[in-house]
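Hello again, I could really use a second opinion on something today. My current little project is about how a certain protein chain folds up. You're getting the sequence in one-letter code plus the fold written as C-alpha coordinates. Here's the protein in full, and shout if anything looks odd to you:
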Amino acid sequence: MGSRNNTNVLDFILMGLTDYEDIQWVLVMLFLLIYLITVLGNAGMILIIHLDLLLHTPMYFFLSHLSFIDLSYSTVIIPKTLENLLTSNKYISFTGCFTQISFFFFLLVTEFFLLSSMAYDRYVAICNPLNYQVVMSTRLCHALITGSYIMVFFESLVIVLYMKSLRFCKSNVIYHFFCDLMPMLVLSCTNTHDTEIMIFVLAALNVVMSLITISISYRSILSTILKINSTSGKHKAFSTCASHLLGITVFYITTVFTYLKPKLSYSLGKDQEASVFYTMVVPMLNPFIYSLRNKEVKNALIRLMQKRDSSRQLK
Protein backbone atom coordinates (compact mmCIF):
# COMPACT_ATOMS: atom_id res chain seq x y z
CA MET A 1 0.00 0.00 0.00
CA GLY A 2 2.91 2.35 0.72
CA SER A 3 4.58 1.82 -2.69
CA ARG A 4 3.86 4.10 -5.63
CA ASN A 5 4.88 4.41 -9.28
CA ASN A 6 6.78 7.34 -10.81
CA THR A 7 3.91 9.81 -10.51
CA ASN A 8 3.56 12.17 -7.55
CA VAL A 9 1.45 10.78 -4.69
CA LEU A 10 -2.03 12.16 -4.05
CA ASP A 11 -2.02 11.48 -0.31
CA PHE A 12 0.13 10.29 2.57
CA ILE A 13 -0.37 7.85 5.43
CA LEU A 14 0.52 9.10 8.91
CA MET A 15 1.62 6.00 10.82
CA GLY A 16 1.49 7.86 14.12
CA LEU A 17 2.93 6.83 17.47
CA THR A 18 1.62 3.27 17.87
CA ASP A 19 -0.47 0.54 16.22
CA TYR A 20 -1.72 -0.92 19.52
CA GLU A 21 -5.39 -0.10 20.04
CA ASP A 22 -5.21 0.01 23.86
CA ILE A 23 -2.32 2.48 23.76
CA GLN A 24 -4.11 4.52 21.10
CA TRP A 25 -7.08 5.06 23.43
CA VAL A 26 -4.77 6.13 26.24
CA LEU A 27 -3.08 8.60 23.87
CA VAL A 28 -6.47 9.93 22.71
CA MET A 29 -7.50 10.71 26.29
CA LEU A 30 -4.08 12.19 27.10
CA PHE A 31 -3.83 14.36 23.96
CA LEU A 32 -7.45 15.51 24.28
CA LEU A 33 -6.78 16.58 27.88
CA ILE A 34 -3.56 18.36 26.83
CA TYR A 35 -5.39 20.15 24.01
CA LEU A 36 -8.25 21.29 26.25
CA ILE A 37 -5.78 22.65 28.83
CA THR A 38 -3.80 24.33 26.02
CA VAL A 39 -6.90 26.02 24.61
CA LEU A 40 -8.20 27.13 28.00
CA GLY A 41 -4.78 28.26 29.25
CA ASN A 42 -3.67 30.20 26.19
CA ALA A 43 -7.09 31.60 25.30
CA GLY A 44 -7.46 32.57 28.96
CA MET A 45 -4.11 34.42 28.92
CA ILE A 46 -5.08 36.31 25.76
CA LEU A 47 -8.46 37.24 27.26
CA ILE A 48 -7.04 38.39 30.62
CA ILE A 49 -4.37 40.52 28.91
CA HIS A 50 -6.94 42.03 26.55
CA LEU A 51 -9.51 42.84 29.26
CA ASP A 52 -7.20 44.15 32.02
CA LEU A 53 -5.82 47.62 31.22
CA LEU A 54 -2.95 47.25 33.72
CA LEU A 55 -1.57 44.42 31.58
CA HIS A 56 -1.39 46.59 28.45
CA THR A 57 2.41 46.70 28.64
CA PRO A 58 5.11 45.51 26.20
CA MET A 59 5.81 42.33 28.20
CA TYR A 60 2.18 41.21 28.13
CA PHE A 61 1.78 42.34 24.53
CA PHE A 62 4.49 39.82 23.57
CA LEU A 63 3.05 37.23 25.95
CA SER A 64 -0.38 37.48 24.30
CA HIS A 65 1.24 36.76 20.92
CA LEU A 66 3.12 33.81 22.44
CA SER A 67 -0.19 32.41 23.67
CA PHE A 68 -1.71 32.94 20.22
CA ILE A 69 1.18 31.10 18.52
CA ASP A 70 1.09 28.21 21.01
CA LEU A 71 -2.66 27.88 20.61
CA SER A 72 -2.37 28.01 16.82
CA TYR A 73 0.31 25.41 16.27
CA SER A 74 -1.30 23.04 18.77
CA THR A 75 -4.47 23.36 16.69
CA VAL A 76 -2.49 22.64 13.52
CA ILE A 77 -1.22 19.33 15.00
CA ILE A 78 -3.47 17.86 17.71
CA PRO A 79 -6.94 17.63 16.05
CA LYS A 80 -5.55 15.70 13.07
CA THR A 81 -3.53 13.46 15.42
CA LEU A 82 -6.69 12.70 17.42
CA GLU A 83 -8.57 11.89 14.21
CA ASN A 84 -5.85 9.43 13.16
CA LEU A 85 -5.90 7.74 16.55
CA LEU A 86 -9.71 7.48 16.67
CA THR A 87 -10.29 6.20 13.14
CA SER A 88 -8.73 3.65 10.83
CA ASN A 89 -8.36 6.36 8.18
CA LYS A 90 -4.82 7.65 8.64
CA TYR A 91 -4.65 9.40 5.26
CA ILE A 92 -3.86 13.06 4.76
CA SER A 93 -4.09 14.67 1.33
CA PHE A 94 -1.03 16.02 -0.46
CA THR A 95 -2.43 19.55 -0.13
CA GLY A 96 -3.40 19.00 3.51
CA CYS A 97 0.09 17.73 4.33
CA PHE A 98 1.80 20.75 2.80
CA THR A 99 -0.69 23.10 4.45
CA GLN A 100 0.17 21.56 7.82
CA ILE A 101 3.91 21.89 7.13
CA SER A 102 3.50 25.54 6.04
CA PHE A 103 1.53 26.63 9.10
CA PHE A 104 3.64 24.63 11.53
CA PHE A 105 6.94 25.95 10.17
CA PHE A 106 5.59 29.51 10.15
CA LEU A 107 4.35 29.36 13.76
CA LEU A 108 7.36 27.46 15.12
CA VAL A 109 9.96 29.85 13.67
CA THR A 110 7.91 32.90 14.67
CA GLU A 111 8.17 31.69 18.27
CA PHE A 112 11.99 31.83 18.03
CA PHE A 113 11.85 35.52 17.10
CA LEU A 114 9.11 36.24 19.63
CA LEU A 115 11.25 34.79 22.44
CA SER A 116 14.09 37.05 21.25
CA SER A 117 11.81 40.10 21.43
CA MET A 118 10.73 39.10 24.92
CA ALA A 119 14.40 38.81 25.98
CA TYR A 120 15.13 42.30 24.63
CA ASP A 121 12.08 43.62 26.50
CA ARG A 122 13.42 42.17 29.78
CA TYR A 123 16.85 43.63 29.02
CA VAL A 124 15.42 47.15 28.65
CA ALA A 125 13.19 46.73 31.73
CA ILE A 126 16.10 45.76 34.00
CA CYS A 127 19.12 47.50 32.45
CA ASN A 128 17.44 50.73 31.39
CA PRO A 129 14.29 51.01 33.55
CA LEU A 130 14.05 54.83 33.47
CA ASN A 131 13.70 54.87 29.70
CA TYR A 132 11.67 51.66 29.44
CA GLN A 133 8.45 53.31 28.24
CA VAL A 134 10.34 55.41 25.69
CA VAL A 135 12.46 52.55 24.28
CA MET A 136 9.75 49.88 24.31
CA SER A 137 7.19 52.09 22.62
CA THR A 138 4.01 50.76 21.07
CA ARG A 139 5.51 51.47 17.66
CA LEU A 140 8.62 49.36 18.36
CA CYS A 141 6.58 46.47 19.82
CA HIS A 142 4.33 46.35 16.77
CA ALA A 143 7.35 46.63 14.46
CA LEU A 144 9.06 43.67 16.16
CA ILE A 145 5.95 41.49 15.92
CA THR A 146 5.04 42.52 12.38
CA GLY A 147 8.65 42.14 11.21
CA SER A 148 8.81 38.64 12.68
CA TYR A 149 5.58 37.54 11.00
CA ILE A 150 6.58 38.98 7.61
CA MET A 151 10.10 37.55 7.64
CA VAL A 152 8.96 34.07 8.68
CA PHE A 153 6.14 34.17 6.12
CA PHE A 154 8.67 34.57 3.31
CA GLU A 155 10.88 31.86 4.83
CA SER A 156 7.89 29.51 4.92
CA LEU A 157 7.08 30.37 1.32
CA VAL A 158 10.64 29.52 0.23
CA ILE A 159 10.59 26.21 2.10
CA VAL A 160 7.21 25.20 0.66
CA LEU A 161 8.32 26.06 -2.89
CA TYR A 162 11.44 23.93 -2.46
CA MET A 163 9.41 21.08 -0.96
CA LYS A 164 6.78 21.22 -3.72
CA SER A 165 9.53 20.85 -6.33
CA LEU A 166 10.28 17.38 -4.93
CA ARG A 167 8.57 14.22 -6.14
CA PHE A 168 7.20 11.55 -3.84
CA CYS A 169 6.90 8.36 -5.88
CA LYS A 170 8.40 5.57 -3.75
CA SER A 171 6.30 5.45 -0.61
CA ASN A 172 3.53 7.56 0.88
CA VAL A 173 3.99 6.28 4.45
CA ILE A 174 5.17 8.94 6.92
CA TYR A 175 6.51 7.43 10.13
CA HIS A 176 5.36 10.37 12.19
CA PHE A 177 2.13 11.65 13.72
CA PHE A 178 2.10 14.85 11.61
CA CYS A 179 3.63 16.17 8.38
CA ASP A 180 7.04 17.53 9.30
CA LEU A 181 9.89 18.64 7.05
CA MET A 182 12.46 15.92 7.69
CA PRO A 183 10.14 12.89 7.57
CA MET A 184 8.83 14.25 4.25
CA LEU A 185 12.35 14.63 2.82
CA VAL A 186 13.04 10.97 3.58
CA LEU A 187 10.16 9.96 1.27
CA SER A 188 11.32 11.96 -1.72
CA CYS A 189 12.54 10.01 -4.75
CA THR A 190 14.38 13.05 -6.13
CA ASN A 191 17.61 14.65 -4.92
CA THR A 192 16.88 16.61 -1.73
CA HIS A 193 20.36 18.12 -1.37
CA ASP A 194 19.39 21.69 -2.34
CA THR A 195 16.27 21.59 -0.18
CA GLU A 196 18.22 20.29 2.82
CA ILE A 197 20.86 23.01 2.36
CA MET A 198 18.14 25.69 2.21
CA ILE A 199 16.43 24.32 5.34
CA PHE A 200 19.78 24.14 7.16
CA VAL A 201 20.76 27.71 6.20
CA LEU A 202 17.41 29.18 7.25
CA ALA A 203 17.32 27.14 10.46
CA ALA A 204 20.89 28.16 11.33
CA LEU A 205 20.14 31.84 10.70
CA ASN A 206 16.95 31.72 12.78
CA VAL A 207 18.52 29.89 15.72
CA VAL A 208 21.78 31.86 15.69
CA MET A 209 20.04 35.25 15.42
CA SER A 210 17.61 34.46 18.23
CA LEU A 211 20.27 32.89 20.47
CA ILE A 212 22.64 35.86 20.00
CA THR A 213 19.85 38.28 20.95
CA ILE A 214 18.84 36.20 23.97
CA SER A 215 22.45 35.59 25.11
CA ILE A 216 23.49 39.27 24.88
CA SER A 217 20.28 40.38 26.61
CA TYR A 218 20.65 37.97 29.51
CA ARG A 219 24.38 38.53 29.89
CA SER A 220 23.64 42.24 30.36
CA ILE A 221 20.73 41.43 32.69
CA LEU A 222 22.92 39.14 34.83
CA SER A 223 25.64 41.80 35.01
CA THR A 224 23.09 44.40 36.13
CA ILE A 225 21.51 42.09 38.71
CA LEU A 226 24.91 41.30 40.27
CA LYS A 227 25.52 45.04 40.77
CA ILE A 228 22.33 45.41 42.83
CA ASN A 229 23.24 45.68 46.51
CA SER A 230 20.06 44.54 48.20
CA THR A 231 19.07 40.88 48.23
CA SER A 232 15.40 41.73 47.76
CA GLY A 233 16.28 43.85 44.72
CA LYS A 234 18.24 40.99 43.17
CA HIS A 235 15.40 38.55 43.85
CA LYS A 236 12.80 40.87 42.31
CA ALA A 237 14.92 41.47 39.20
CA PHE A 238 15.63 37.77 38.73
CA SER A 239 12.01 36.74 39.30
CA THR A 240 10.90 38.91 36.38
CA CYS A 241 13.16 36.87 34.06
CA ALA A 242 12.92 33.40 35.62
CA SER A 243 9.71 32.40 33.80
CA HIS A 244 11.06 33.62 30.47
CA LEU A 245 14.34 31.73 30.94
CA LEU A 246 12.45 28.56 31.82
CA GLY A 247 10.24 28.91 28.74
CA ILE A 248 13.26 29.49 26.47
CA THR A 249 15.16 26.52 27.92
CA VAL A 250 12.30 24.05 27.50
CA PHE A 251 11.50 25.24 23.97
CA TYR A 252 15.08 25.28 22.67
CA ILE A 253 16.15 21.96 24.19
CA THR A 254 13.18 20.03 22.78
CA THR A 255 13.30 21.57 19.29
CA VAL A 256 17.09 21.22 18.94
CA PHE A 257 16.96 17.60 20.16
CA THR A 258 14.23 16.85 17.63
CA TYR A 259 15.89 18.31 14.55
CA LEU A 260 19.56 17.55 15.21
CA LYS A 261 19.11 13.84 14.55
CA PRO A 262 20.44 11.48 11.87
CA LYS A 263 18.23 11.46 8.76
CA LEU A 264 17.69 7.69 9.07
CA SER A 265 15.89 8.12 12.38
CA TYR A 266 13.04 9.94 10.59
CA SER A 267 12.47 7.04 8.22
CA LEU A 268 12.17 4.70 11.18
CA GLY A 269 9.89 6.97 13.21
CA LYS A 270 12.30 7.19 16.15
CA ASP A 271 12.22 9.73 19.00
CA GLN A 272 8.68 10.96 18.32
CA GLU A 273 8.33 11.59 22.06
CA ALA A 274 10.42 14.76 21.74
CA SER A 275 8.09 15.96 18.97
CA VAL A 276 5.11 15.31 21.23
CA PHE A 277 6.78 17.40 23.91
CA TYR A 278 7.39 20.56 21.89
CA THR A 279 4.22 20.36 19.76
CA MET A 280 1.82 19.53 22.59
CA VAL A 281 3.33 19.75 26.07
CA VAL A 282 5.27 23.04 25.73
CA PRO A 283 2.23 25.02 24.44
CA MET A 284 0.23 23.59 27.36
CA LEU A 285 2.91 24.52 29.92
CA ASN A 286 3.64 28.08 28.74
CA PRO A 287 0.54 29.69 30.32
CA PHE A 288 1.46 28.07 33.64
CA ILE A 289 5.15 28.99 33.33
CA TYR A 290 4.33 32.65 32.65
CA SER A 291 1.36 33.08 35.00
CA LEU A 292 1.68 30.87 38.10
CA ARG A 293 4.77 32.77 39.31
CA ASN A 294 3.36 36.10 38.12
CA LYS A 295 1.46 38.17 40.69
CA GLU A 296 0.31 40.68 38.06
CA VAL A 297 -1.59 37.99 36.12
CA LYS A 298 -3.11 36.59 39.34
CA ASN A 299 -4.17 40.09 40.45
CA ALA A 300 -5.62 40.79 37.00
CA LEU A 301 -7.69 37.61 37.20
CA ILE A 302 -8.96 38.60 40.66
CA ARG A 303 -9.88 42.08 39.38
CA LEU A 304 -11.80 40.63 36.44
CA MET A 305 -13.70 38.23 38.71
CA GLN A 306 -14.54 41.07 41.11
CA LYS A 307 -15.70 43.24 38.20
CA ARG A 308 -17.92 40.42 36.94
CA ASP A 309 -19.45 39.94 40.43
CA SER A 310 -20.05 43.68 40.74
CA SER A 311 -21.82 43.83 37.37
CA ARG A 312 -24.04 40.91 38.39
CA GLN A 313 -25.01 42.66 41.64
CA LEU A 314 -25.93 45.83 39.75
CA LYS A 315 -28.31 43.82 37.56
Notes: The longest strand covers residues 11-14. Strands lie at 11-14, 91-93, 173-174. The chain is about 75% helix and 5% strand. The longest helix spans residues 193-227.
